[in-house]
Amino acid sequence: MRGQMNKGGKLQQYRPVHKEKNQTEEKIATSAVTPQTATQQPTPPPNSRTGMQTNPQRIFCHRCKGFGHMARDCSNVVFCINCAKPTHRTEDCIYDKQPRPMAKLVGYGAPGLGCILIQNTKPDPPKEHNNPLAMISTVFGGELTEAQLEQGFTQQFKWNWVWKAKAMPNGSFQMRFPNKIKFDELANFDYFNVKGTDVQVNVKEWTQESEAVGKLHIVWVKITGIPEEMKGYQALYEIGSNLGPVLEVDMATFRASNVIRAKVGMMELGVLPLKLVLTSPKGLLFQAHFSLEEVVELGWFSDQLDDTFEKIEIQENTLEGSSQREGKQVVVVDPMTEDHHVSKTGNGLLKFVRSKSWCQN
Ligand SMILES: [Zn+2]
Ligand SMILES: [Zn+2]
């Protein structure tokens, strides 16, 4: 017996048995679940040695890892907590079998440009919803709790609606409104008092930007001085990433006229035009030149962000002292591996994170 049955007859766990003993059966069980074989042979193939029909209990399900049925007929409940999908078990999830993703630091090109890029973000949620999602921000009067906000709205707006507030990291709250008309009604006020408190709030539509504490400047940058060996899709993206996350390299213009343009997000624009020394595994040095071609969208940076930078700067000063900040830096572009290294001469990685003192320099 391969596994143990529980009271409901469902398989609880899979126990591998010695291969030699069951080799013939193993083979049949595997071939029986191949979809092609299954459609060609509706009845299980007879055992070649005995001429007997295959025991249906030997049919293996790849979905729930149980026996007696195929994956397409599987009615057992499986759920993966990693993917939040009812398509496979957590134990079978490919995520746990792959190297864990790591964030990338981009913007090594100049002090003040550095930021940490997370590439595996979720797609935008669908916008249409019967109950509009609002952002409630406090304007005056100090801080609010979720409960105070919910109570205040429940007493004030008796709309036969259960108010649920969710505090967000930037200090605002998410709340769903019963409908668009009621939302517009409150969004029209500049601000109003939350009943039972001294706090004034305003109501706006919730967007992804509502959660942010800032947004990078989005610009088109023209890049010159790039050697032939770096003129390829991957190397051009690597080169662009010295300024920040690369949204796009204009490959059409590059192929048509050999002009390199990259659309990048940047922490600040004051560093442009910028000269950078690039190298490859061959060790030759090339001087690349980055110049601002077009501002697509100016970014914004909230005061909260400045607090973060001040904290990072304090840590950095304690760690290595400010006298060690000077030093040459060379960016290595490896067209073969897509690897990106920054050679450090007495500088911690934090050097590349935006800080006030460098902005003022
Ligand atoms: Zn199954
Ligand atoms: Zn999964």
TrEMBL record:
<dbReference type="InterPro" id="IPR001878">
    <property type="entry name" value="Znf_CCHC"/>
</dbReference>
<protein>
    <recommendedName>
        <fullName>CCHC-type domain-containing protein</fullName>
    </recommendedName>
</protein>
<feature type="compositionally biased region" description="Low complexity">
    <location>
        <begin position="29"/>
        <end position="41"/>
    </location>
</feature>
<dbReference type="GO" id="GO:0008270">
    <property type="term" value="F:zinc ion binding"/>
</dbReference>
<dbReference type="GO" id="GO:0003676">
    <property type="term" value="F:nucleic acid binding"/>
</dbReference>
<feature type="region of interest" description="Disordered">
    <location>
        <begin position="1"/>
        <end position="54"/>
    </location>
</feature>
<keyword id="KW-0479">Metal-binding</keyword>
<keyword id="KW-0863">Zinc-finger</keyword>
<keyword id="KW-0862">Zinc</keyword>
<dbReference type="InterPro" id="IPR036875">
    <property type="entry name" value="Znf_CCHC_sf"/>
</dbReference>
<feature type="compositionally biased region" description="Basic and acidic residues">
    <location>
        <begin position="17"/>
        <end position="28"/>
    </location>
</feature>
<feature type="domain" description="CCHC-type">
    <location>
        <begin position="61"/>
        <end position="76"/>
    </location>
</feature>
